[in-house]
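As practice, study what follows.
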Amino acid sequence: MTAKKTKTAPSVVDYSLHELSDELRALGQLLRNEWKLFGLLLAGLVVFFSFTDPLPPRDVYLAVGQAGSEFENLGRKFLPYFADQGISLHLVNTSGSGASLIDVADEKIKVNAALMAGGVAKPGAYPNLYSLGSIEYVPLWLFYRGEEFRGQRAFAHFAERRVAIGLDGSATEIILKDLLAVTGIRLGASDRFLRIPHQQAVQMLIAGEIDAVCLMDGMESPNVQMLLKHQDINIYSFPYAPAYVKKLRYLDVVVIPQGALDLQAVRPATDVQMLASTITLVVEKSMHPAVQQTFLVAADRVSSRVDQFFAKPEFFPAYVDHAVDLSPVAKKYFEHGPPMFIDRLPLWVMNYLDRIWLLVVGAIAVIYPLVKLFPSYRRIYSTMFITDAYQRIKAAELAGLRADSCAELQTLVDQLDELDARALSTFVAADLISTMYGMRTTLRSQKVVLLEQMARIEA
């Protein structure tokens, strides 16, 4: 019966496993011996991450004005972009832009951002807020029943009729107040201006319960779209719109061209000239940069996908309303565009890397030369042990030369035996094993010398 041959050829797998084992044992030894240093490094990392704030909050609250408005409609379009980033965006309805602005500026209210009409915030009044730019135009619509009014003093004409102007604090009421002040009319002077929600006002106008509705809203707003379906409801064209813009710089002139609503029926029959502000996104100054960037990406993509009826292509998002300072995050976004790999990595990761790369490069420039001064962690303790062992062998040799009794020599022999036992149980890096065995050979040679010296003394 033939004996089974043993495998003598070296194995790549065995070698790799041995190398991995060496790595883990060396690392474990390093951690045991230098736990204070690693504790200090861990504390430093905790401080670093606390300072750089890598993770955004899980919940963000956005004030979107009245229900059924373009502000709310736009907020709903943001929802999937935040969901993709693992952030829950909560929409908060308010009485309008004025109330939304107050809520986001109040640290006690759980609102972090607001969609508001440009012109509602007064320059310098909100130093604790940042602007992320404007997203689209929102015209001031004046819908009315009855014969078409072609006069030029519209505000004086409609002041004698029942006109809904939105709730207190709405963009409609705030901006209409500025327009009326320019023409010498005080908004509070007539009780025929009805302060009711836009949704309710639209239904009342359709039912013939009021004469007109004034609302500041986008073309895609459900309220505006509902009124545009009724051909017996007219849209007022502001002949003095360019003059108002000269007085109120936050406004622009926009036009519904003849036939733009219905080419077959030619609606409107003539160009309709209106005054418009913009939907502006404002956020708390303390808002996490990654959340700001998510808002910017969402606004950019929504603006490019919706029908910008009044704006030129690629115009929005843009920093139009300068009443609130532009966020540094938004400034960089407008100048350089969205971050690279936007569709491959989470925005918070890219934003964090963008914020810390300079710190990391600086740290590497300082740390790398220091690291090069030290040997590999796999070798350092092996080298230290072998070096220390040689020094102990040399000390035993010198002590043996001075010894004059067997007791002294036996103590030195016992020390060398103990050192040899330690060498046998101590982890040594693979590339230093031959050095370790050389040290043990020297140790045993010295032990032989000491034993021979003992024999001579005893003789």
Notes: Residues 59-338 form a domain with the D-Maltodextrin-Binding Protein; domain 2 fold (CATH 3.40.190.10).
